[in-house]
Amino acid sequence: xxxxxxxxxxxxxxTGVFTCPVSGTYFxxxxxxxxxxxxxxxxxCHFNRNGxxxxxxxxxxxxxxxxxxxxxxxxxxxTMKLVKGDRVWIGSCTESRVFVHQTAAFTGxxxxxxx
Length: 115
Prior knowledge:
By secondary structure, this protein is mostly beta strands. The chain is 0% helix and 50% strand.
């Protein structure tokens, strides 16, 4: 997977963890694509902050567990109040083996720094 922009190097490209460099309000978005060929009824993941679940991501194709709908896109956005040193990542996925990692995307930016 490629990293296109990592101002300040706060995102660890090896671990997928963002470490907050400045306390404030942050916007984050993540997108994951389920690859066709995996017969799963639903997938869920979470935004994690310091190991605590913050935002739920979920997709369900409303089929049976044995029917493959093809690719499914799951996207979620959140705004979080972070303190310098907080760590944020996407994890706790029920079916992490089914994702097309080349299409995974994570975006985050500081909206407003604390005074």
